[in-house]
Design a protein that fits this description.
Elements lengths: L2 H4 L16 H15 L8 E3 L10 E3 H11 L24 H7 L3 H14 L1 H9 L7 H14 L11 H14 L4 H14 L10 H9 L6 E5 L42 E5 L2 H10 L4 H4 L1 H4 L2
Antiparallel strand pairs: 1-2, 3-4
Helix pairs in contact: 5-7, 8-10
Length: 298
Amino acid sequence: MNIRLHRSWMYNRLNPGRKGFTDEFLNGLDSFLSFALQREGITNDNIRCPCSNCKNVPFKHVKDVKLHILKRGFKPNYWYWTCHGECDPELLVEINKENYAQEGCSSHHIRFENMIYDAVGPRHQMECEEDMEEPPNINDQKFYDLLHAAQNPLWPGCKNHTELSTAVRLLTIKSEGNMSERSFNQMVALMKETHPPNNLFPTDYYRTKKIVSKLGLTAEKIDCCVNGCMLFYTDECKQLKECKFCSAPRYKKKMTGKERCKEVPMKRMHYLPLIPRLKRLYASMSSAPHMRWHYENK
């Protein structure tokens, strides 16, 4: 059955003459709230509010969500409840349409798709629902690439892992096992050779990081004084070639005949920006209730 015909009640809120709500809207609204509360990770009965004003951005108690929807109605074109645990078949990759139609979206795939939606935010999700005919811009193209990586099976017929889930797992193994980049490249090369043809195993460490890097949460590299006196961080300090406190050189000496090589700092730190990580924690359906716990349970 056509999903838009099946859920036509969503935009049939008021009776003719605006005399109360239609029975199908009230019944459908109850079924929507029940569906949203069944999603794994929901705590304290807080879900995203899909009213025309909130547009799936803030989390609210289910009673407040019901009042908002009764007052304002659903946001336009929210036929697929993707922000409430449902898989949108219109966003599935063309090559996997037949497999998904026969087997459905596994919970493993949905988990990585939800991670992508949390990374890009609700704006990209709303645009891809409402404006599919226009060519995507650079940011939207990254979103589509990530979504395809999360839905592409590792090889035709693979049900357990996708291109994105494999890249994430490989990087986790490298980090936990303190594996060198050379050993990592040898391992993925062997896995690519021993698996079925046309597999999507990354060929090396660089390409594995490139797949996952589109999720965001990157680190900033900041040059430091070798003696720990200062950071070359501000616009003024970025121009310095030596520490302004101990006069220690910022860069290593270049070897003779390699004057054109890139300057290598004596010491460098990796800074993990806090604000993007806080935004991600509040955007994720699983971690947002824990972030609000101290405020709601004073």
